Amino acid sequence: MGRVVVTGVGAVTPLGIGAKVSWDGLVGGRSGVRPIVGFDASDLQVRIAGEVPDFVAKDHMDAKAARRMDRFSQFAVAAAREAIEDAKLEITDANRADVAVVVNTGGGGIPTIEQNVTAMNRSGPGRVSPLLIPMFAPNMASSQVSIAFGVRGPVVTMVAACAAGVQAFVDAVHLLQRGDAEVAITGGTEGTITPVAIASMANMGALSRRNDEPERASRPFDRGRDGFVFGEGAGVMILETEEHALRRGAPVICEVAGGAYTADAYHITAPLDDGAGAALAMKRALARAGLAPEEVQYVAAHATATPLGDIAETKAIRCAFGPYADRLAVSATKSMIGHLLGAAGAVSALACVLAIRDGVVPPTINLDDPDPACDLDYVPNTARRMRVDAALANGFGFGGQNATAIFRRV
Fold first, then answer.
1. Assigned CATH for 258-408
2. What is the CATH number of domain 4-247?
3. Annotation says 162 is catalytic
4. Mean pLDDT across the chain, nearest whole number?
């Protein structure tokens, strides 16, 4: 099967609008976690999140279309626009049927549901939007990207909790290698920071309660970690068959070398203690990429800063990489942007791609007192200049879903 390459990147994250500002923030170890401003959170136990700052949808798309989209779809369209421009991809009548969209999500339009339930309870059924269903449906991010850019190839959405953003790249590679399209607009998106979502996850005990020091709240692998920080945003990349990219003279960044996804078959929220399901995803991804463990330099970890999850992932990496695990650079973008749920893996993938391009690995910030049970090289607090020839992104989700994608220098 032919190779699949990355030719453009786009992002909307708590660090700002655009891949460059987001990447600069990650490499600079800057936190995008702040007190919540999107709604009054004063009555909530958790009052901090990684909200996207200063996002104005009509700056990135038609204003009328934006009003018909939930926030997760708006993020997807904005990130896709940047990625298309970065790839110098022209979509015309001649090629639009050969361009696919694979944009995954974990929750879809939860804000739209919540707002309309509130409106109905307050004012009756007449106040429910007639566009409720086509706004909140999880497939709408992919569909809105297709509509915005006029692409008519396959439109795919997989709802895979927090594994969704990584799984998108695995599925897009399969789609391109089958010949179903020559280009795929690929990634993950999420916009689910709402009062009910925050309250639910806080009641579960999954969220950090460091309300008085938000920038220090997300602490993957640290002994003092007390849960993840809700985040939002999108990461989108342009994937192409190598043949198509070379034919049009596209700016190739790297190759998507392989990927896999597996299941824990264990619990709806907790990972397997030994990380066996996650390790299997990494082992299969390495095998499908044709890479030995020692050929990978960097792992963009899932690393949510939950007490169980970080230990399980550490064990999984050790299982997958064996003795070489101690020589890996492993870092957590979530330490700076929080957990973007269905978009988290797409941002981890972005970190892999740009680490290969720029020769720098972003840090894990707030790692001040390492947990002895988390004993890998987590690039603490300061980015590291190093050559990266191959990088691996992990994404693990509720229900025991595990996904891994591997990116390689070309």
1. 3.40.47.10
2. 3.40.47.10
3. yes
4. 97
